[in-house]
Amino acid sequence: MTLLTPREVAETTGLCYKTVLRMIQRGELAAVRLGSRLRIEQDELDAWLERSRVTPHRHRLDPALVRRPKHSLVRRSHERGARGAQGRDGLESQVA
Fold this sequence. Notes:
This protein is an alpha+beta fold and about 100 residues long. The chain has a domain at about 5-50: Molybdopterin biosynthesis moea protein, domain 2 (Alpha-Beta Complex), CATH 3.90.105. It is built from four helices and three strands. The chain has helices at about 5-15, 15-25, 40-50, 60, and strands at about 5, 30-35, 35-40. The longest helix is centred in the N-terminal third of the chain and has 10 residues, at about 15-25. It is elongated, with a radius of gyration of 28 Å. The termini are far apart.
């Protein structure tokens, strides 16, 4: 049985140390207290990682199920208005 400190768990997982402590406090990650010190069993960390595994969404696997946005955030040149060669102030630009 391998015991890890919360700091070692944070370094191993890339989480912040305080996040690991909050997870222990909320009961998301089981820990044992040895005197005044917290320790996490390697098996418990492995089980938490397995429970946290993300599975891909079905629509990401099947392009036919992907919803297309109704409106694009990018305006095309023909949608920019009827200003044509006019600038922002409504005057035609002078080209020398």
